[in-house]
Amino acid sequence: MTIRIRITLWYMCLITLVLAILSSALYGYIFYKTNQDIKATIQNTVKGIKISQSVDFWNSLQIDVSPNIANNQVIIQVVDYIHQKVRYSRNLVEAGITLHYPDPSPELKLNYNKISVNGDPFTILDIPIVLPDRSIIGLLQVGIYTGKEVNILHNLLWILALSSIGVLALAFLLGLFVSKRALKPLHKVIMASNRIESGDDLIKRIPRGQPNDEIGLLTDTLNNMLVRLQEAYQRLNEAYDAQRRFVGDASHELRTPLTTIRGNGDLLKKLWSTITREAQRPLEQHHIDLSLEAITDISDEAERMTRLVADLLTLARGDAGIMMEKTNLAIHPLILEAARKANLLPRTVEWRVEHIDDLLPVHIQGDSDYLQQLLLILIENAFKYTSFGYVELSGLQKEGYAGIQVSDTGIGMHSNELTLIFERFYRADVSRGKTSGYGLGLSIAQWIINEHSGSIEVSSKENEGTTFVVWLPTITD
Question: Domain HAMP: where (predicted)?
Fold first, then answer.
């Protein structure tokens, strides 16, 4: 059952209840007023009747009724229980109607009765006639013909029933029409949603009407949901593409050392297999040199693979959302420790440390090991791409942030490359063979900065050098 039919049926039930209450109230009121008018007419007639009852010496009952009471509007019948005589009003005699009367009994009391005489309805009031000793000697019956009132009430009942049916039928049709118009925006929402679903096009939006009603709010909610779905779908596609490139680049980087290790292994296997077969042949120096060279190549490539796997593990932890354990750190000792370790890195240029004492009172919330790794990545990159001049580490400050600057006088980069250097496996030099590395260092550095709610600024010119500035939020007392 559609929501349109359900709304219409609920509407019909409500209208039916209202009509039933109103019709019952109207019929009950008219029924009550009609009965009251009938009783008032009978009571007014009774007030105009004069009855004098007496018992003579021979125990004969004498009942005198005022003759001017009988008329065509009411009927009167007087019963004499002593002589078993009945007196009628003129209209009863003319109509040939005899009213039934009860037998005398102590339980006989004033009472209204509805009776039918020859198929005609009457309302009768029975009034016992008693003597001073409370003995019942007669009965006065005053009635009125109620056929007109019964017909009016009967017709009223039919009018109410038929009008209620007509109103309900009209209400049903109007309910269908109104509910169709009211639900028309909802049908548009459904049709638009179906088009979006069938077309797999999350760029489409559901048209919104002018009224700011529930349908409009539903449309806004669905459109907002589509925006979030589109963003999530786009992020998922980007993540999938990045993962595919990442796996391809990692495979490419791992293939080279593995090929070297396998080639040197095959060389050693072939060399020493030949030496073993020719046991009587003396071991020559070039055999030893060749073996040591192959072993050295294997060791170097294994070390490169170890660094690559370590970098990949760090990035995988970042992608998995692993949280760093941050504590309150003084940034000055951290920079000094990184500068000390940088002295041990291979380099061909001057190494400078300047203005870090300005950061003596500064504290940050961070992880010491990861922050040192960040600084060593930037310093090692500067050494790697600087063949003359110097590399400098310095401290900066601005409101709410501590800055760590690493600058060099190396080969620099083109401005178009600055937006790409943080991508995984990207290398700014033209050939990956010019300098050692895999292009993962800056990706790790950016992840560490993001985890510390910081930012990084890069400026570079070709053949003039590059400057990295890391900004980290400070802790205020």
Answer: 180-234
